[in-house]
UniProtKB/TrEMBL annotation:
Pfam families: ACAS_N, AMP-binding, AMP-binding_C. Residues 12-68 form the Acetyl-coenzyme A synthetase N-terminal domain. Residues 519-598 form the AMP-binding enzyme C-terminal domain. It is an enzyme of class 6 (ligase). Keywords: Acetylation, ATP-binding, Ligase, Nucleotide-binding. One of its GO terms (molecular function) is acetate-CoA ligase activity. This is Acetate--CoA ligase. GO terms for biological process: acetyl-CoA biosynthetic process from acetate.
């Protein structure tokens, strides 16, 4: 019996139980039967949760790109691997076959080698959603270089911090990127970032917009001529199961971004397995995940998961509102998409527009629709289910994180009955538990608590680049020996999970994780600002938006507060990126603080939400009078 594909609900429970009772047997069978190894593992897993040390498929040797591409060539070399849909609908889509992809990735991997990149070197990829992005990621993995993709919406100083944190040797970027009607000067941003990045030796530049750009002698080269010259014969590097595959930065509730490190074999097995089962993938399906490859969703479910299964995956360069709000639906129709996977914020934005935009398209090709990135509210769930899924496609609400590598809790399409706003049941291998404030597990159903996972799964990130201590402290100490997700959840009467949102100082805005501390740091650098505190508040499209409480210095120079608010947002945009801008900025004379000097964010959150009902215990506040002042000035 194979464990790779779950066929029905009864089998789900059977596999689930097996995966809990005998995790080693369960995963070793999946790994051994569904992938190509140079050498299979000696031991399926080894772990010590108290030290946050986890290994899967110990001593196995493998190359993930051989599994994504080479092994499919004999049977489906001509099959389309990637459909590239450009920003401009009048530009022709590209169908990149597995053969084409093999050649492009092999050539690109030789370019990297010729430019001095070796196994273990870090390469920063700062590209728009064009084929070169997919090809660069896979080329790194082919030669064992560690890719660090930075979302091409981040500002120069955010890119700089990420490049320096992992000491990248190379940056791959483009002359620019398209986004709806705008073009973005990516090379200009890289030039600015690189004034402070001593580790970067080479910059390769893909052509996309033909914008005039600066090429720095000795550092920058156009990519295409190098690719044209390169050989398409590239031996894949033999990687150890636990060699790092990539670094991907995610916001923390404090301090600098965390470079989550994913390793090779466990990530491979887990993304392939979850892709197959959650989306019920079958051979001729066309899968479209609308995320950007700059986020984990794009890594796992635009590239690795689909390619490992030999699927056809769509890569879309543009945005849902360009040229108009029917773009997504037009693309589904055009490429006969069978599985469509997007974020609640996109659903809410599109649901605000005229219904004709979606009703114009029958969308009969669709079989499964999915949601990821934040809780999906009831209204958005129904709109998506009724008008996109036509009430016939299962809607899988998939809960997971950058740190988890792949989906942990979700319905399996056509197998698990769905329930609006519930991610539903854990995947095989995943043991969620809910914890109370006393840090004990709460047993039984109809309960709510902090969501932890009590046993490792193959896709879990292994460390934070350069800071294992922080990894251990962030994820394994709040509830000793358990992986703490940072999310709250409830479990209903039948054991279904509903994710209620973050319980730490991370706010999810339009599906993007934003740590409040780095934004506060950026604001506090403005010369007029003394101190600030940021909280999230509900927003009908973004899910959550940011509300900033700002104390000004007393110099009195800045009387024009409207302008000052604009300047503060510009400052945030320059330091982090436009996604972190504040929707509301209220100037205050103080912030509610405890006697130990900690800002009581709970109160600020309530004020931002306009909920004055229950502030809880304010007796420990040093300055309780400030609460009324802030309430009165609420925007
Ligand atoms: C949130 C994205 C509710 C959650 C894959 C998590 C969700 C954070 C869901 C991780 C969902 C993601 N329902 N909340 N289906 N999916 N989240 O690292 O708070 O960008 O901790 O990974 O998004 O965001 P990240």
């Amino acid at each position: 019996m194979s464990y790779y594909k779950i066929e029905n609900l009864e089998q789900y429970f059977k596999h689930y139980n097996k995966s809990i009772r005998e995790p080693r047997k369960f995963w070793s069978k999946i790994a051994s039967e569904n992938f190509t190894w140079y050498q299979e593992c000696e031991k399926v897993m080894e772990f010590d949760m108290s030290e946050a040390k986890i290994k899967w498929f110990v001593d196995a040797k493998v190359n993930i790109v051989k599994n994504c591409i080479d092994r499919h060539l004999a049977r489906k070399g001509d099959k389309t691997a990637i459909i590239f849909e450009p920003n401009n609908p009048n530009e022709e889509a590209q169908h990149i076959s597995y053969n084409d992809l093999y050649i492009s990735v092999s050539k690109m991997s030789n370019v990297l080698r010729e430019q001095g990149i070796k196994k273990g070197d870090r390469v920063c990829i700062y590209l728009p959603m064009i084929p070169e992005l997919a090809i660069s990621v896979l080329a790194c993995a082919r030669i064992g270089a560690i890719h660090s993709v930075v979302f091409a919406g981040f500002s120069a100083s955010a890119v700089e911090a990420r490049i320096n944190d992992s000491a990248c040797k190379m940056v791959i970027t483009s002359d620019g990127g398209y986004r709806g009607e705008k073009t973005i000067d990516l090379k200009g941003i890289i030039d600015e970032a690189l004034t402070n990045c001593p580790s970067v030796e080479k910059v390769l530049v893909a052509k996309r917009t033909n914008a005039e750009i600066n090429m720095k002698e000795g550092r920058d080269q156009w990519l295409q001529p190098l690719v044209d010259e390169a050989s398409d014969n590239s031996v894949a590097e033999i990687m150890d199961a636990e060699d790092p595959l990539f670094i991907l930065y995610t916001s923390g509730s404090t301090g600098k971004p965390k470079g989550m490190v994913h390793t090779t074999a466990g990530y491979m097995v887990y993304t392939a397995y979850t892709f197959k089962n959650v989306f019920s993938y079958e051979e001729n399906d066309v899968f479209w995940c609308t995320a950007d490859i700059g986020w984990i969703t794009g890594h796992s479910y635009i590239l690795y998961g689909p390619l490992l299964n030999g699927a056809t995956t769509v890569m879309f360069e543009g945005i849902p509102s360009y040229p108009d709000f029917s773009r997504f639906w037009e693309i589904i129709e055009k490429h006969k998409v069978t599985q469509f996977y997007t974020a609640p914020t996109a659903v809410r934005a599109l649901a605000k527009e005229k219904l004709e935009y979606v009703l114009k398209f029958p969308l009969k090709s669709l079989k499964v629709i999915g949601s990821v990135g934040e809780p999906i509210n009831e209204e958005a769930w129904h709109w998506y289910n009724d008008h996109v899924g036509g009430k016939r496609c299962p809607l899988v609400d998939t809960w997971w994180q950058t740190e988890t590598g792949g989906i942990l809790i979700s319905a399996l399409a056509f197998i698990t009955p769905t329930k609006p706003t519930y991610a539903s049941l854990p995947l095989p291998g995943i043991q969620p538990i809910l914890m109370n404030e006393k840090r004990n597990e709460i047993e039984g159903n109809q309960i709510e608590g902090s969501l932890c996972i009590k046993f490792p799964w193959p896709g879990i990130a292994r460390t934070i680049w350069g800071d294992h201590q922080r990894y251990k402290e962030t994820y394994f100490t709040a509830f000793p020996g358990k992986y703490f997700t940072g999310d709250g959840a409830l479990r209903d009467e039948v054991g279904y999970y509903r994710i209620t949102g973050r319980v730490d100082d991370v706010v999810i805005v339009s599906g993007h994780n934003l740590g409040t501390a780095p934004i506060e740091d950026a604001i506090n650098e403005h010369p007029a600002v003394a101190e600030s505190a940021i909280v999230g508040f509900p927003h009908d499209v973004k899910g959550k938006a940011l509300y900033g409480f700002v104390i000004l210095k007393e110099s009195g120079e800045y009387r024009d507060r409207t302008n000052l608010a604009k300047e503060i947002n510009q400052h945030i945009s320059d330091h982090i990126g436009p996604i972190a801008k504040l929707d509301k900025i209220q100037f205050v004379s103080g912030l509610p603080k405890t006697r130990s000097g900690k800002i009581m964010r709970r109160i600020l959150r309530k004020i931002a939400e306009g909920d004055y009902s229950n502030f809880g215990d304010t007796s420990t506040l040093l300055n309780p009078e400030i609460v009324d002042e802030i309430k009165e000035g609420r925007l």
